[in-house]
Amino acid sequence: MTLTLERGDLIQSRNYIAGHWSDAADGARLAISNPADMQPIAEVPDSGAKEARAAADAAHHAFADWRATPAKRRGELLKRWHALVMAHQQDLGRLISLEQGKPLAEGQGEVGYAASYIEWFAEEAPRIAGEVIAPSVAGRRMLAVKEPVGVVAVITPWNFPAAMIARKIAPALAAGCTVVAKPAEDTPLTSLALVRLTEEAGIPPGVLNIVCASRGRTPEVVDAWLEDARVRKISFTGSTPVGKHLARASADTLKKLSLELGGNAPFIVFEDADLDAAVEGLMAAKFRNGGQTCVCPNRVYVQEAVFEAFADKLAARVAALQVGPASDPASQIGPMINARAVDKILAHIDDAVTRGARLLVGGERVRPDLGPNYVAPTLLADVTPDAQLCHEETFGPVVPLLRFATEEDAVAAANATPFGLASYFYSENVRRIHRVADALEAGIVGINEGAVASEAAPFGGIKESGYGREGSVHGLDDYQHIKYLCQGNLR
Known about the structure:
The chain is α/β, with parallel strands linked by helices. The chain has two domains: 8-261 and 465-484, Aldehyde Dehydrogenase, Chain A, domain 1 (3-Layer(aba) Sandwich), CATH 3.40.605; 265-454, Aldehyde Dehydrogenase, Chain A, domain 2 (3-Layer(aba) Sandwich), CATH 3.40.309.10. 36% of the residues lie in helices and 21% in strands. The strands form six sheets. A seven-stranded mixed sheet has the order 14-15-16-13-12-18-19, sandwiched between helices. Strands 9-8-7-10-11-21 form a six-stranded mixed sheet, sandwiched between helices. Helix 1 (49-68) crosses helix 7 (218-227), helix 2 runs antiparallel to helix 5 and helix 3 packs antiparallel against helix 6 (188-201).
């Protein structure tokens, strides 16, 4: 089956700057391929500093009018965008599957998830409010008001090309900010399609601008925004090393930063857990998008008394997963994003086995008839703590099982990482639930639950997983600053 779009104009192949679709000034192009079979899909501009500066110019010029637009009106425009996204959920889901590789059902699910953030912040926009402060001196009025920070640079990853950009753009626009955005070089088409729908929704020219660039030219684009004092905030989702670079490079202009960085999520199964529920939770948390998510479990700790029983139950489920392209409705695990990702996954598996792990399921490339990017869902038992996959994000369909003896051992092992994005654990002991939830060092904790994401909840990490929160009632905070107004001589 060929993936087709009923609405062909959703596939855009140019930058969107100041309300116009345009190519890179030097004509450079970047080819986008389907990871399922490596066949070309489209070409987009391979942009540089000139296009980045033009986007910043447009956002800066549009800011005064957009911030003055009543919040209710901004919310109405976001609601129109939300309606268009949902009206084209199937086409957008196909586009995600085409350029990113995830199964069709997941692609369409991602569109719904992305749209939930647009709807949420459309409704939050009219609720932006300050406060009246009790005066400390007679005859004085004291107020705190919230204002948009200004131009925001948004930099997004390839694994959720719709959800990540919507989760950043929607609160920025709701708060009254204007945006310059750079999508991941592997998956720009979905982001361009979403921007195409903002144009149709009536969001004014210059309010939202998007610039595509290859891996080699991305530093030109980002550096132009880092050096521009008019760009007051950067919102980035990606690796911790890049996040640290952005933090250092932002120092000269003291930009506000939201950084959602790497993870190394532990998943703990205590002996008093419902093992069937824990298996289901782990399957949901680990194998979404083939394990290519920042919050998926990377280390699974199972208490000794239930280790073998849990491993047996999990092995049966992992072995039954169907691997294939998104065009096959039976596919549950699609291709990895590229050959580099596959090489890293296989290297992690080989390293774990070399250090003594038992390979229970998978462990190799599969479907060579389709292409080089398919990896069998893999289950490893008795992984040792010094294995690479205990210290680096594998970003693939690999589950390493490690044994532990006591609750204290499990918590200590879970926290023995510089990262702190997500953690999960399963237990039926109410007292243990409270103790462990308090002790885990992570911005997100799943308790007897593997699917934790929600537009109503604050999403973000601690330690080297970054700072700032996306979603929830707190999601507007990083796109606003507080101005204190003090009026005297009222008597």
